[in-house]
Amino acid sequence: MSKNKSIDKLYIQLYSIHGLVRGHDIELGRDADTGGQIKYIVELAKALSEDPRVELVELVTRQIKDKNFSPDYAQYIEEINDKCRIVRIRCGGGKYIRKELLWNHLEEFVDKSIKHIKSVGRLPDIIHSHYADAGYVCSELTKLFGIPFIHTGHSLGRDKLRKLSSDGLPFEEVEKRYKISHRIEVEEEVIYFADMIVTSTSQEIEKQYGDYNNSGGQNFVVIPPGIDLERFYPYNSKTEIFEEAQKIKEVISNKLVKFFVNINKPLILSICRPDKRKNISGLITAFGEDENLQKRANLAIFAGIRQDIQTMPDNEREVLTDILLLMDKYNLYGKIAIPKRHDTEYEVPELYRIAAQFKGIFVNVALTEPFGLTLIESAATGVPVVATDDGGPRDIIQNLKNGILVDVTETKNISLALNRILDNRRLWREFSEKGIKNVKKFYSWKAHVSKYLSEVEKLLKKELNKKDIFPKIGKKLLNLKKLIITDIDHTLLGDDDSLKEFIEMLKNIHPEIGFGVATGRTVDSALEVLKEHNVPLPDVIISSVGSEIYYNFEDKLIYSKGWDAHISHSWKKEKITELLKQFDFLNLQECDAQRKFKVSYYTADVPKNLTNIKETLIKNKIKANIIFSHGQFLDILPYRASKGKAIRYLAYRWNILYENILVAGDSGNDEEMLKGELLGVVVGNYSKELDSLRGSKRIYFSSRNYAGGILDGMKRYHFLELN
Asked: How far, CA to CA in Å, does 706 sit from each of 24, 113, 714?
């Protein structure tokens, strides 16, 4: 976007990783992760795409290839319309995973998101994360690329911890089930890095984000979500004559008839997930303990989609079991309906309208409610509401003036509010009419998008006018077509004249060709020696024999968490160190040579010794990569780590073709990176360990030494030429 024009042709990415996300027939309530957030982000994506200022909206989520779920969730790209699509990124395998178990796979999601962005060929103008898991992904992307970053929490870990603790759940159990400490830590970082945080209510800012250390001075913006007014039209609208709507209504009525002795009584309706926080047991208790209420109304609870309760996750199974036990306790047969499933796309709007036609009431008595989208949907159709006096419902009822707020911790308050509305036809009609009228004013998607894009425009102008906090290396890497990676000692360094020639080449190199080093040195040692020889700081440093990767962010190095997460699998450093104490031919190198993912020794060049080490590790089921170099250095790394693997990781992450990466080395710890499809260069002063590579495809043995050999190899491969 130029500095002189308003926003247009925006490319917006929305990230919502967990749950079941598709553009049609959303399976709301199928599990705890497929709730209002999923519906919200799908409708937000569609609504944004309808604005002429927006060129493309991508809803980025997790790809699921699981026989227990629809193949819809396995599609890489799902086109919603010509300006909106769902992009599914594979991480953590194909099986469906609840959100608490996704944390360890998010680095993979970051890497593959970068790969997707590079395939598009354009950075998004805005990235907008939904929930903490997506927040983590977007905070990593903004660190790399400086993309303006918006976040919506939907629910927060500190608030959840407080509620669960007040319910008597021990912290250890909360930690085990919800990984709550890690979630809160991530949320703190997301709040810090986000350029704008969107909330649905002002109470969310004060009471929920206010608990966080990084919340002070943040750019919070209240933008209530909208609803589809074409679907959630009033019960007394002339649109009701549509034949399709009548058919759906008949289907629902037939479902309810099976439950109720008298179908003609007012309907008290609740639609929510089977979650303890939704307080379904409190609603049933209120209904069950008020005989007058039972005489006057029926109760229908649509608590998600279920098949066999015994096979459901613990939380849902416990809630549904409690519902059945309470129904039996209060003998509510013939007075309460608990259908096993409902079609969220088509049946939910008709459910509200049926409740309105029977002069019923919609109820949301959740113990904690960050927003409360169902309250707005029901209001649009003309159903008065009774809602929890917590969180979002306070703002909603204040705006819509269509119902009563109650303290739901006392079940008597629920029944009193229900009776008050049922007893007063004039009050029912007043609440119904105000709800229908005020929803159009406060909660349409058109109004939401208008305010959203207005705030985006402010944000983008602010970004243009301030000095970049984040460096351009991420953007440079995104645009790279080629990459030079060289070892330092005895490859890049060793001859001053050829080094000067190499440095001069770097100064004039095309911006789409990057420069990196891969070394056995620690990162601090590498920086020191490069500075000593006046070598420009590389775009990428692979250090400690490939166990660490750093990116150059305007002369500040940023550690690659993605590589860290990738190589940590099955790494057992302490056990390796303990097992190898038995060998007196091994001497640990100095402390600064020992790293998180590297154990380093001095040893003699004795093949039998290396064999003994390998056999010991295999016998004890230790997966590791053993690298011997220069006749004396022994490095033990995670089995996924090495210089070669690190370079291939970079190729994957930044979408650089192998044949566009030139690698140069001189010794055994360079062997792996020289093999394969990369363009290999062995400098003339190489160690005998590399003799076995002679005659290999794509490995050039130069007659020139040190940096001169690198330059010779570049000439051989015509590497500085760009197509």
From this structure: 60, 38, 13
